[in-house]
């Protein structure tokens, strides 16, 4: 899925802003393990949004969490029982929706958004007005979700560590699991961050944010 350059620039600039805000107000902003509570406070303070986090029990292997957005508040629902690292990453990813999403990115109906993303694979050139609308919603939702994952990864496993970590793995000095334990993130997140395409995307994002 393609991500617009302007959305990428905006995402990395907002990540940069919140990192600077955390550095100014957090007691230990440079520690390897990101404080989810500090991030929540900084986003709440920066945007003037009241944020509530709730751990809930629901079935499913794909959906790990979701966010409900209101005018000046947000409620984050995180699936219980998925392990500490995934619960941390899921919470940060949902917090990143508050950080990076614009009002036009808000979906008024989460269930319909999921349905529209499933519809995207089945649309053809004879689509109706209704299915065309669903396709556009699916594209916007997918882009928002991808950017939230990128932002969460940058906050929990910053880009500046990755090139050295990739070299260390190649030299047999460390492993994906060891890096994941150090930063308290899922192993999958570290592996995804090391993908050459993701590495290049991160370099591009920071170049845009700093230009």
Your description of this structure?
By secondary structure, the protein is mainly α. 60% of the residues lie in helices and 9% in strands. Strands 1-3-2 form a 3-stranded mixed sheet, covered by helices on one side. A hairpin with a 3-residue loop joins strand 2 (65-69) and strand 3. The two termini are 25 Å apart. Mean pLDDT is 85; it is low at 109-125.
Give a nutshell description of this structure:
With about 210 residues, the protein is mainly α.
Q: Got a strand count?
A: 3
Q: Main sheet, how many strands, which sense, barrel?
A: 3 strands, mixed
Mean pLDDT: 85
Pairing-aware structural class of the strands and helices? mainly alpha
Overall geometry: globular
Low-confidence stretches: 109-125
Distance between the termini: 25 Å
Strand order of the largest sheet: 1-3-2
Bin the strand percentage: 5-15%
What is the CA-atom radius of gyration, in angstroms?
A: 18 Å
Q: Can you give the helix content as a percent range?
A: 55-70%
N-to-C series of helices and strands: HHEEEHHHHHHH
Key descriptive features of the protein:
3 strands, 211 residues, mainly alpha
């Amino acid at each position: 899925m393609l991500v617009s350059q302007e959305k990428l620039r905006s995402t990395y600039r907002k990540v940069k802003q919140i990192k600077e805000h955390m550095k100014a107000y957090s007691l230990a902003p440079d520690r390897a393990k990101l404080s989810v509570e500090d991030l929540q406070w900084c986003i709440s303070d920066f945007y003037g949004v009241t944020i509530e986090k709730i751990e809930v029990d629901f079935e499913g292997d794909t959906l790990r969490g979701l966010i409900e957005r209101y005018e000046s508040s947000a409620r984050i629902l995180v699936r219980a029982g998925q392990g500490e690292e995934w619960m941390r990453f899921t919470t940060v990813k949902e917090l990143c929706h508050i950080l990076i999403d614009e009002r036009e990115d808000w979906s008024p109906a989460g269930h319909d958004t999921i349905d529209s993303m499933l519809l995207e694979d089945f649309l053809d050139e004879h689509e109706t007005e209704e299915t065309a609308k669903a396709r556009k919603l699916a594209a916007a939702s997918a882009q928002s979700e991808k950017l939230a994952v990128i932002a969460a990864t940058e906050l929990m496993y910053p880009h500046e560590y990755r090139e050295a970590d990739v070299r260390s793995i190649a030299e047999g000095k460390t492993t994906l699991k060891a890096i994941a334990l150090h930063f308290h993130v899922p192993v999958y997140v570290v592996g995804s961050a090391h993908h050459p395409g993701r590495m290049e995307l991160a370099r591009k994002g920071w170049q845009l944010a700093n230009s």
